[in-house]
Fold:
Amino acid sequence: MLPHHNTKEIQGKMIDKDEIIIGNTYYLIGYFDNNLKIPDVETYIYVGKNVLPSDKNSNGDSWYFQDPSSFLSKGYFYENQNKEGFDIVRADEETLETIFDVSGLINELSDIENAPS
Structure:
């Protein structure tokens, strides 16, 4: 589930959908305020593109990110018989604009100082 916050224009470099690496850590960034001073950062592991059978019937691509806790303890959510206890983000191309690698996260958080009050 996506966090509820303001996703106004974000300045940092988002991830490139063609360069996302399965098993790598990425950060979902949003803001609680319109001045982009109060960030909300969530950590996820990228687990694959179009990994569910229902994705074949979809008009667009889906990128899946899983919470680190369940990923480290249970593995990939789509390979697990018990589907409970997983925090999953299904991202479309628009949602990818709010997901960053570590360098993008650092750049984005560095820009907070320059955000208008």
About this structure: Confidence is low (pLDDT under 50) at residues 1-11. The beta strands are 25-31, 39-49, 63-66, 88-91, 99-100.
